[in-house]
Amino acid sequence: MQIQSMTDTSPVKWHLAHTSWAFETFILKPYLAHYRPFDALFEYLFNSYYNAIGEQYPRAQRGCLSRPSINQVVAYRQYVDAAMQQLFEQCKGKDASGISPLIRLLINHEQQHQELMVTDLKHGFYLNPSFPAVFDQTPIDHANKTMSWIEFSAGNYPIGHQNESFYFDNEAPPHQVYLQPFKFASRLVTNGEYLQFIQAGGYQSPQFWLSEAWQKIKQSNTSAPLYWLKKDNRWYHYTLAGLLPIDWEQPVSHISYFEANAYAASQNMRLATEQEWETAARSIQENPNSKIEQIFNCLWQWTTSAYCAYPGFKAAEGAIGEYNGKFMVNQYVLRGGSKHTPSDH
Amino acid sequence: MQIQSMTDTSPVKWHLAHTSWAFETFILKPYLAHYRPFDALFEYLFNSYYNAIGEQYPRAQRGCLSRPSINQVVAYRQYVDAAMQQLFEQCKGKDASGISPLIRLLINHEQQHQELMVTDLKHGFYLNPSFPAVFDQTPIDHANKTMSWIEFSAGNYPIGHQNESFYFDNEAPPHQVYLQPFKFASRLVTNGEYLQFIQAGGYQSPQFWLSEAWQKIKQSNTSAPLYWLKKDNRWYHYTLAGLLPIDWEQPVSHISYFEANAYAASQNMRLATEQEWETAARSIQENPNSKIEQIFNCLWQWTTSAYCAYPGFKAAEGAIGEYNGKFMVNQYVLRGGSKHTPSDH
Amino acid sequence: MQIQSMTDTSPVKWHLAHTSWAFETFILKPYLAHYRPFDALFEYLFNSYYNAIGEQYPRAQRGCLSRPSINQVVAYRQYVDAAMQQLFEQCKGKDASGISPLIRLLINHEQQHQELMVTDLKHGFYLNPSFPAVFDQTPIDHANKTMSWIEFSAGNYPIGHQNESFYFDNEAPPHQVYLQPFKFASRLVTNGEYLQFIQAGGYQSPQFWLSEAWQKIKQSNTSAPLYWLKKDNRWYHYTLAGLLPIDWEQPVSHISYFEANAYAASQNMRLATEQEWETAARSIQENPNSKIEQIFNCLWQWTTSAYCAYPGFKAAEGAIGEYNGKFMVNQYVLRGGSKHTPSDH
Amino acid sequence: MQIQSMTDTSPVKWHLAHTSWAFETFILKPYLAHYRPFDALFEYLFNSYYNAIGEQYPRAQRGCLSRPSINQVVAYRQYVDAAMQQLFEQCKGKDASGISPLIRLLINHEQQHQELMVTDLKHGFYLNPSFPAVFDQTPIDHANKTMSWIEFSAGNYPIGHQNESFYFDNEAPPHQVYLQPFKFASRLVTNGEYLQFIQAGGYQSPQFWLSEAWQKIKQSNTSAPLYWLKKDNRWYHYTLAGLLPIDWEQPVSHISYFEANAYAASQNMRLATEQEWETAARSIQENPNSKIEQIFNCLWQWTTSAYCAYPGFKAAEGAIGEYNGKFMVNQYVLRGGSKHTPSDH
């Protein structure tokens, strides 16, 4: 629960502490009468990136925090949980409309960290040449062998969160966009199809790659997706169930934006925009006979769209406004969700 | 003509050689009968980034090419010019529709490098504490003091190149977009307005900055735009006419995307998207009484839009297809043009 | 036992595994009949830097090895210990002169790692703003207030290991050197004396610093020794007993070669050479009335000497020859020993 | 005269300006009555590293100083030369013993820069794939084919400058050292001998390399000395006369300390210490029949000794004291001199 394999990942222990911190910082401190923080230092230690709360312990050193121990972090969580119960008591019979959306947000925030824990663990364990398994082998996700193309006609389409369920601020406001006609693949690209790209010299063909990507793969000597390994002339990939021979029918996973883009270019295609993706996804919900598979609960899917604000987007006031808005630059949008995204998320 | 102040800039001499190289490589070699290259090594030395042509001399070392001398480069240019004249003779009375669009493209390519030469020279001379002047002082570009806001209503608008004049491939195909209602400023932000942002602590206020920007300005200790200098408690900026006291009515220049974004956030505003900018610009051409100033021939203007392909964009076949398409990632769109953009560009 | 605070430090767990690995690799595998390695992967995981043994797990990632767990590492140690017992049985009544020097070396190697564990732990815990204590407060090491200067006359002196006790290969062969007359301080520099250097502007005075040092302290903004902290205008330092007010009579510790050198220069003095240091140290052993204090079991002491081979030094054959010889470049010699050096070392 | 190929090299133009600056700064300003500096800014621009004089123009940007032009720098030199003549007039008939050692030092300083100009030019031109020649081909320096070993017996030997001729401060004070018996090679290692080391897998054999060296050559993929190139299965090296086939009888040049050290280790030998080298060199001057060749005016020769102060070394007071003393760390001593060292140096 202690290891941090790179700056972008965090120890399992840290995730547990940080999600507890979020309830303490955004709910208990401002709303629970007479709340006493568990440990004054934690405000600093487990603040991820909220400048309005204060300085943050350096992200790259999270793996060096051997204290608080996991037992202390669990005690922290229990303390916060108990205080949340007190808050619920305090709110009984009163108007809690100021607090409840925040609580809902923090539950969803915690679900994001549940997924991150698994993702970070995978990267951390991958650095171990014994390739430890986290879970038993999970059932494999196969789609129809044949990829077909679903057509969408030109027109104005709705984008953004449209109903009463929970949403993150960056999914709003709902608005319309005009889309040119486009075709959308009925399923994801398989490992087998991606292997053909490799074998056809994809990683040696500059014409498929963005300029920045080409420099990067040359410099890092990349020639296969993250977690792929060739041993005795056979391909394996590291999974949460350990090192396994690659299943060629499974969708290819853990490829970068650059790799997704290059693969598409090699097929004379392109990635969908996030608006096209959303339109395709919405069509499934409206048409139970849709042929599109593997959209949800399968893999996060690269779109060609840069992460930006929806027209009319406005970050919330105060610290919580730093949740999403300040990251809208030099990032590209993934849609869908992973097998390890909590199912009610 | 020799200095290269950073990897992103090139020596003046290199620009002259490279634009000559472009005519030689894309026109003379394939189309002029019996053409003999001026120097076989130049194919490698002055190839900027075309992988389909071959390897390239390392960009960061362009400033180390003391040979060919400027006299040799001028001779190269005269040789290429003479060969182009021969080509024109060769084409007389024949169908030149395969060549002429390429020539037109390379003329526009050369105009881009004319502007780059001035821009690169400015950066190079700025590193010299004697702050040499390139030109005499140029007339100053003032707009109306009062900034007003021009309203645009919601609806579908045309985007992209629409007529018979020259355009780059990334300006096509023409298409429509749906825009929410928006307001567009009648003029650019002035140095004086930007100074207020500085004096109000803008560079010390994380809430205005994107997360990546905040880390960057903290690390680099940035507290004013590039080329601004404070001396004896007075502000100067380095210009092509040397180091001058800042004119507070002039539009602020040489600010980064991050600074533009932060300034807008500090005013509770945002940068326009490239589609909004284009719609505003088009409105001037259609309405001679438009109050919008400083759109063209003034300064390149940051939009909030990531550089991406227009719907239906397709890079040209072969080497020339590398001109624009492969750079469409992690860059943000500037619109307008600078005072040093050739006026017929 | 898991954290690694920088590339140069190792997790406590790793030290235990590596010292066990050393016995397994250099003794058990070659000398114990029918020995079966505990885990084949450990040969790679816990090889520190012996190329003749094989590839090594990347040093910077030692903190990411959450497996083997500490329990497994302890079991590894017990397995190796038991096998060593078997080896002793096997050797009974036989000539063990081929093995026993190696065992003696590995015991001394382990003592080095015992000290390293404490040193690395200190650095790791220092990154934790709760400043955990490792030990109870240790008695403080004070010397006479007055620093006097002990004179040594010119002449040839013996250098290097001279008797039958254990020594590392880099302490041999014994040889003589010619020394100019020199004076040697009777005690180490105190925290209080070093504070005067700070307060007199030592860190702002280029004339005291080596050129490389000056660039380094400017770039890193260094203005006090590692582990010193100023809080509410009072100086503290992080110790193995936690964060404590600085004791001004104690010798200054955790200063770099560059700082030691600059302090000496500021006093119009210089660091001793390793030959001068050794001559001074030897004089204590020969003269019980020597006024020189704090030579042993106090602090490692910088000399001005670059680490190099003694005349006639020859690294051992095979992997064990990599122990010391290959590091004899760009390092400077410390002499003495720390409070945490095992006392029979 | 403008190019700077890396931070460690300087443009030819800069060398000329800096040596003029040295006379202006250390002689004319303090000693010539009513001297007016040529250009106030030059004090900053052409100060190499003297903190006591003031801030320095960043070393890495010397290649960006397109102004002053070479004509201005030549005018600067003529101005300084003329002022030096005036100073000589002023000194006539007076005691100049305070000035003349400084002038002598600066003449020797200029000779160092004359050599550096050639060395830096070589590196700069090497980056040009046309491999320009600086000089006509110079006569090749061959020694006897057979390498013999000259024996020196143990004893105390004199080290350091011993007579009335010029010397740098780091060559003093003269002192004695005790040396163990050693053997010294009669000539340098040839290109042909070094090629055998390459062909025997020297660059793939960790046992010959210092640990830091091994990491470096692995990382940089080094497999031959700087300036060596293999083309069509034949070896060439870049020389000041252009790219030439390697002469296998010539001594190997442009190898790093690490390469020299590794070659020696591969022969079961070691580099000489600087004291051994000096003793060998002195023996030639004393014995005209010495068999030792290629000591002077051939190539700088790596010794195994770290650069450090001689016993009793004391840097001069003031700025001139920064000339040598502050670089005595993490550098290794070369002895001898190059073909391009001025012959009376």
Number of distinct helices of chain A: 8
Radius of gyration of chain A: 22 Å
> Mean of the pLDDT scores of chain A?
96
Regions with little confidence, pLDDT below 50 for 5+ residues of chain A: none
Order of helices and strands of chain A: HHHHEEEEHHEEEHHEE
Order of strands in the sheet with the most strands of chain A?
5-6-7
Structural class of chain A: alpha+beta
Which outline of chain A best applies?
globular
Largest interface, C-beta within 8 A: A-B, 38 and 38 residues
Helical content band of chain A:
25-40%
Please state roughly what percent of the residues of chain A sit in beta strands, choosing from under 5%, 5-15%, 15-25%, 25-35%, 35-45% or over 45%: 5-15%
Oligomer: homotetramer
Largest sheet of chain A: 3 strands, antiparallel
* Terminal Cα span of chain A: 24 Å
Give a count of the beta strands of chain A, DSSP E runs of length 2 or more: 9
In words, what does this structure look like?
The structure is a homotetramer of 345-residue chains. The first copy, chain A, is of the alpha+beta class and 345 residues long. The first copy, chain A, is 33% helix and 12% strand. Chain A is built from 8 helices and 9 strands. In chain A, β5 and β6 form a beta hairpin. The longest helix of chain A has 27 residues. In chain A, 29% of the residues are buried. Chains in contact: A-B, A-C, B-D, C-D. At the A-B interface, β3, α6, α7 and β8 of A face β3, α6, α7 and β8 of B.
